[in-house]
Design brief:
By secondary structure, the chain is of the alpha+beta class. It has eight helices and 24 strands.
C-alpha cells in the first residue's frame, strides 16, 4: 500500500495517500498522520510490503528493492553495504503499523464522511458511490462519481459513446448507435424517417376513427387459442389489454382488460373482463365519481344476425368506491365481471369463437350531455 507526501498537508506529520494502479487500480488521495520513519528512501512513499536488511537494518518497499537485488553485486542504497536475498526479511511490524494508520475517503466532506484504518480503505473504495471513476465506455471522462455512472451512460445521459436508439424510434426506426454518430444517421435517413412518420400518422388517424364512436368500443381479439395458451403458462401474458378509448369526444378515458383464463372467482373456469379508468385529457371538467352505464357484450358471430345470442353483462355496483374516483395515477383499479363467460361456453357453444377470433363490445353511456 503506497503512501506519498502531498501538498495538501494538514498539520505536522500529515501526508496524502495515493493508491496507484499497481495497488488496487484506484487513483485517489487520502489524508492521515504518519511518522516520517515510515517513508521508503527509494520511492519517497510510505512503505508498501516493507522489508528490512539483516545487516544494516534499513527498510525499503519490497517492490523498490527488488530491481537492486537483481544486480550483481547488489548494495544497500543507503550505506552501500553488500545485499543478498537471504539477508532481507519482511518487516511485518512496520507493515502492521502503516495499515493501522487512520485515513479518510478522498471525498471526505463532500458527501462521503468515511474514516478508518488504511487496511480497510480498499474495502470502502470499491463500493463507495462518491469516488470519481473513468467512464466504462472510455469516452475520456475520469471524474464521474460511481453513483452517476448509470445516468451518464444511459440513453438519456451525456456519454458520447453510449449506444442509444434513434430519436425517431417511436415512428418505427430500429437503428441504434453511439450518440456521437446519431447526427450522421439522422442526416442520411431523412426520407426513411419521413416515410415512417407518414405511416404512423395514418395509423393514428384510422385508430382514432375506429375506437371512439358514441361511447361504443369494439375489441377484436385475434389468435385466441395462442393467447389462451400463453395465459395459462406465462404469468406476464395472463392479462390482455385493449387500446385506450374515450367514452365520447370529451369523455372519460378507459381501457378494457381481459383475463382469458380467468381471475379471482373466475380463475381457470371463466373469461374475466374488466374496465379501468385512466387519466384523461378532460378529467378536470367531468363529474366524479364515474357514474356511466357500462355494458359488456360477447358477440355471437352467427352468419344470421337475427339468430345471434350475444352474452351481455351490465355493471351494477356501488359507485362511491375507489374504483370510480378520479384517478390520481396513470390508471385506477379495474371494475368488471370475473365470471363474464365460462371457458366451456366459449369453446363449445354458438359462434363466440370463429376463425380463432372473438369480438367484445363495451358500451359506455356517452358524456357529451354532461358538459
Amino acid at each position: 500500500m503506497a503512501v506519498k507526501s502531498g501538498s495538501n498537508l494538514q498539520g505536522p506529520g500529515s501526508v496524502a495517500y495515493r493508491i496507484g494502479q499497481g495497488v488496487g487500480g484506484i487513483d485517489a488521495d487520502f489524508v492521515t498522520t504518519m511518522p516520517p520513519d515510515y517513508e521508503c528512501p527509494i520511492c519517497r512513499l510510505a512503505y508498501r510490503d516493507p522489508v528490512q536488511t539483516r545487516d544494516c537494518g534499513h527498510r525499503f518497499c519490497e517492490t523498490c528493492i527488488e530491481p537492486i537485488l537483481r544486480k550483481t553485486p547488489a548494495f544497500c542504497p543507503i550505506d552501500r553495504r553488500p545485499l543478498s536475498r537471504d539477508k532481507i526479511f519482511p518487516d511485518k511490524a512496520c507493515k502492521r503499523t502503516i495499515l493501522s494508520l487512520l485515513v479518510r475517503c478522498y471525498n471526505y466532506g463532500n458527501d462521503c464522511n468515511w474514516t478508518g484504518e488504511l487496511a480497510n480503505l480498499q474495502d470502502h473504495l470499491e463500493p463507495c458511490q462518491k469516488i470519481p471513476i473513468s467512464c466504462v465506455n472510455e469516452c475520456g471522462r475520469t471524474d464521474i462519481p460511481r453513483s452517476q455512472m448509470s445516468a451518464h451512460i444511459d440513453a438519456e445521459g451525456d456519454c458520447p459513446l453510449a449506444v442509444v436508439p434513434c430519436k425517431y424510434h417511436d415512428f418505427g426506426c430500429k437503428y441504434k448507435g453511439r450518440r456521437v454518430d446519431m447526427e450522421t444517421h439522422v442526416s442520411e435517413t431523412i426520407q426513411q424517417h419521413l416515410d415512417l412518420a407518414h405511416v404512423r400518422i395514418k395509423e393514428l388517424e384510422v385508430r382514432q376513427e375506429n375506437i371512439c364512436m358514441n361511447g361504443k368500443f369494439l375489441w377484436k381479439i385475434s389468435n385466441y387459442s395462442q393467447l389462451s395458451q400463453q395465459a395459462q403458462t406465462k404469468k406476464e401474458k395472463e392479462k390482455l389489454c385493449s387500446q385506450p378509448f374515450y367514452t365520447g369526444q370529451y369523455g372519460y378515458k378507459l381501457r378494457a382488460e381481459a383475463f382469458l383464463c380467468g381471475l379471482g372467482q373466475g380463475k381457470g373456469s371463466h373469461l374475466s373482463l374488466y374496465v379501468v379508468i385512466m387519466k384523461g385529457e378532460y378529467d378536470a371538467i367531468l363529474p366524479w365519481p364515474f357514474q356511466q352505464r357500462v355494458d359488456f357484450t360477447l358477440i355471437d358471430q352467427d352468419d344470421d344476425p337475427n339468430n345471434r345470442q350475444n352474452k351481455v353483462w351490465r355493471l351494477s355496483c356501488d359507485r362511491n368506491s375507489d374504483y370510480f374516483k378520479r384517478p390520481n395515477r396513470s390508471k385506477s383499479l379495474g371494475f368488471g365481471c370475473p365470471k363474464f363467460v365460462s371457458l366451456d361456453t366459449l369453446r363449445t357453444a354458438r359462434n363466440y369463437v370463429r376463425d380463432d377470433t372473438i369480438f367484445i363490445k363495451i358500451e359506455v353511456e356517452p358524456t357529451e350531455t354532461l358538459i
